[in-house]
Amino acid sequence: MTMEHIRNVVILGSGCAGHTAALYTGRANLKPLVIEGHEPGGQLALTTLVENFPGFPEGIQGPQLIENMRMQAARFGAQYQLGHLDSVDLSTRPFSLKVGRDTILTKTLIIASGASARWLGLPSEKALIGHGVSSCATCDGFFFSGKEIVVVGGGDSAMEEALFLTRFASKVTLIHRRSEFRASKIMLERAQKHEKIEFLLDTVVEDVYDVNKKEVTGLKLRNLHNERAYDFPTSAMFLGIGHVPNARMFEEQLETDSDGYLLTHNHVHTRVPGVYACGDVQDRRYRQAITAAGTGCMAALEVEKFLEAQGE
């Protein structure tokens, strides 16, 4: 393999972080290669109207925002390849990536593979994502002002979602499959004391209505004590059962926290020189499109500095 076949930078992931990293490294004439991953576009591709990304006063559809980012990066020379990472070797430089039948060598690597929301796994739930089913209260809560909505979960994520949604909703019903909670005591107490939050315990969601109307009108619930099934009217269902970072491939080569998020220092540096992580794969706190884009920019700038320092 000659030097001409070794990439300056490969970017894993095609969400806000990956596209932004591609834009910046493209403008630096580094000819980045973006591996789009198993969820091209990331979580924004599953979102309808985005109203909190700067520069779009009337809002913009999530898939359109992602496509705009892609076109902008491609304009400056970013190349895109469908596929996902099968294996990686970070023990020596250039780093070696296996993507399908291709082996890709690269001087630097930006991991922007994101995190996937945990879902209940219902067909109706999947069909209504972006139409009343959401995993992001910060993104979509505003659309349900004055309405009664549901949050599913029993940990801190669910309590945070429920408390945030009280700013908009007239009532928030928190549905949990157990009678005990995984949430911290302080978060649970805050939720229990809030006048807008009610609890349905020992209860599971079995279906989401109404796929035909392309909007959430209610849920089919089942009480686990008496096995009674019944319909529960609601305007939205928010999932508060956590996210799974798409970082399993790196667990033995990079540092992760107890939940699998990549650990970084100095914002985007991993413990391996030349390897950077940005976006939701390393950010368990904010998980916003704009913060993902910001860290994508940081990672790209660090790649430039690293290659310059290496005389490359």
Could you explain the architecture of this structure?
The structure is a single chain. The chain starts with 6 loop residues before the first strand and ends with a helix. Strand 6 (87-89) and strand 7 (95-99) form a beta hairpin. It is of the alpha/beta class and 312 residues long. The chain is 24% helix and 26% strand. Helix 5 (156-165) packs parallel to helix 6 (185-193). The strands form 5 sheets. Strands 1, 2, 5, 6, 7, 8 and 19 form a 7-stranded mixed sheet that branches. The mean pLDDT is 93. It has helices at residues 16-27, 62-75, 123-127, 137-140, 156-165, 185-193, 289-309, and strands at residues 7-12, 33-35, 49-50, 60-61, 79-81, 87-89, 95-99, 102-111, 115-117, 133-134, 148-152, 171-175, 197-200, 203-209, 218-223, 229-233, 237-239, 243-245, 275-277.
Summarize the model shown.
The chain is α/β, with parallel strands linked by helices and 312 residues long. The protein has helices at 16-27, 62-75, 123-127, 137-140, 156-165, 185-193, 289-309, and strands at residues 7-12, 33-35, 49-50, 60-61, 79-81, 87-89, 95-99, 102-111, 115-117, 133-134, 148-152, 171-175, 197-200, 203-209, 218-223, 229-233, 237-239, 243-245, 275-277.
